[in-house]
Every structure is written in structure tokens, then in C-alpha cells.
Amino acid sequence: MNIFLLILCSIIIIYSALMLILLIFWTSDKTSNCSQKNNDFYNVFIKSDKIIASVIVTVRNEEENILNCLFSLTSQKIENLKIEIIISDDFSTDKTTEIVEKFIETYKNNNFSIQLIKSYSHQNYNLYSKKYSQEVAIKQAQGEIIILTDADCIAENKWIITILNYFNDNMTQFVSAPVHIKSDKSFFSKLQALEFASLIISGGALIYLNKPVMANAANLAFRKSSYIKLIDNIQSKKISSGDDIFLMSAFKKVYGNNSINFIKEKDAIVYTKPQNTFKDFIHQRIRWASKAGAYKDFFTVFLSLTVFFANLSIIILGFIAIFLLQNLKIFLIAFIIKAISEFVILYVGLKLFSLHKLLYY
Known about the structure:
Layout: H1 2-26, H2 39-48, E1 51-59, H3 66-74, E2 82-89, H4 96-106, E3 112-118, H5 129-140, E4 145-149, E5 154-155, H6 159-165, E6 174-176, E7 179-181, H7 187-208, E8 219-223, H8 224-230, H9 243-255, E9 260-262, E10 270-272, H10 278-289, H11 298-323, H12 328-352
Parallel strand pairs: 1-2, 1-4, 2-3, 6-9, 7-10
Antiparallel strand pairs: 4-8, 5-10, 6-8
């Protein structure tokens, strides 16, 4: 029993040490120079009147969300740059395409061009259509910088320009940015927001550690020219989710860890909705977990196992403490160590985005 307890406690100590390392790298100044505007980078596009970026939104049955998304995108402060918005429809059966078409007819702005692509009309349409819809849109995009988001997301009005600032050097090929669940007054939605924030902060810190593992397809960007060169390296196109992780993994494989960056700025946040029910929440997590078997990167597997076994260890220690009260002290110490390590990195990360009040719940 003593050896078993030692193993459980060791796992929690390793996990807590990892949280401390992530905290150190999260507070690093790796991106301090990236957010500065590079006029030479922009002038090439302004003088040539070329489209600098294409924002791609892949949709399926998003009639409740797509209009707010379009308003958000077309309200962006982009100065004199030309931006393309592509809505790639993935076999919607509701009024999504009608809403988009009507918006395109009435919208007038020379700096934005909007087009609707019905990807299922293409010959290669198949069961795994979201990834194919996205691929079709990327190939048709005219912008050098591809920015991905989701139909249920709303962005800050400097979102596009903030992302573009991170491509002002030739080394950066792929950029991940924060996604925040905009919670309502319910405890469940605030819990989702907090849990999701922990994933975003951890993903950003790992990128700063030069060990990119996580990204979110609701808010990421990359160079189209680089994407075209590595498209055959993208794994698991037959897995329904994971387009973000596998896309980043392909960039990492071809261009190296240093080619990937994370934007630690409030202006780069996109806001999304919480899951309505606990059942929806569980289904979402199961969908995310379904791609785990396709992970091949050693560090990704190590990190996933560490988090899993740390949480499992706390549960096991709790059960042991219930039936063997002499081990209650061990459980409390382990629980406090783990809780403090998680609280500190969450507090520091959330405070940067002025979201630290979530921890009060």
C-alpha cells in the first residue's frame, strides 16, 4: 500500500511541477515584439491592392449564429487592407445559405469581399465533409494569410489586425489565438468557461515552451503558401474532429516548433457559446477524445497521460481516505498541492484577459 500511495503522490507532484513550468513560460515575453505593426509587411498588400487575408468559416445548420458572425467580421477595424470572407457551407439543411446570400446582396464595403461556397457540390464531397469543406475554401482563398473561425463565434473588432501583426516575420507560419466561452449567469456555463480557459492557457504556455500540442480551430491562422506545401502531411482526415490539432501537427512536422506562435492579447479573443446541457457537454468531450488514438507525438501522449493519471490519482486517494482514515492527511496534502498549482496558472492567465473573476465561482 505504501508503494502504491507513493506512486499516486509522485504522479501528482509531476503534474504540479508541469503546471509550474507552464506558468513560467506563460509569463514569458516571447511575443512582446510580435504585436508591433510592421509597415513593410502591410505596404506590399496596400500598394498592390491585393487581398492580404481570407477569413474562412465552415458552416452546417448555423441559421441562429451566422448573421451575428458576419456582423462581427464586417465590423473589423482593418485600416486600408483588403480582407476576404469565405463562408464554406457543409450541406446545411436549414436557412443558413439563404441568410448568407441575402447578407452578401445587401452588404457594400470595398475593403471586404464575401463569398459563399457550397463545398458539397464538388466532386470529392464525402462523409468527412467539414474538413473537406475547409480544404476547398482554403484552396480557393486569395489571401496569403488564412484565418479560421466558427459560425458561433464573435470577435473583438481588432481581431484580424492583431492576428496579422504576428505574421510580420518570415519564421511564423502558424498562429493560435484564445477562445473564450461567454458564460451566462448559470453555474454550469461558468464552469465550462473556466474549464475551457484552462485548456487555452495550457495550450498557449506549451507553445511558448516550444512544445505546441493544442490549438482551437475557432481561432487560428496560417500562411496559405505553407499550407499548400504540407497538405499531404495532415493526418487523420477521416476523424470527424481534430482538424486544429492535426493541422498544427503538420506545420510542426514540416516547419518546426519555432514556426508556431500563440497570441496572448485580449484583442485576439473570439467568444463562443457554452453547451446548453450536460449531455451536450459530454458528447463534445467524447468527440474531442475520439482523436486521441491518432496522436503520434511523444510529448503530446506524455502530457495527456500525465493529466489523466493526475486526476485519476486524486480520485483514488480520495476513496482510500474514506475507507482508511489514516491516509486522509496524504489525500489533503496531494489535493492542496494540485489545486494550488492549477489555481495559480489559471489566475495569472485569466487576469491577462480580465476574466479572473471566473475563479470566484
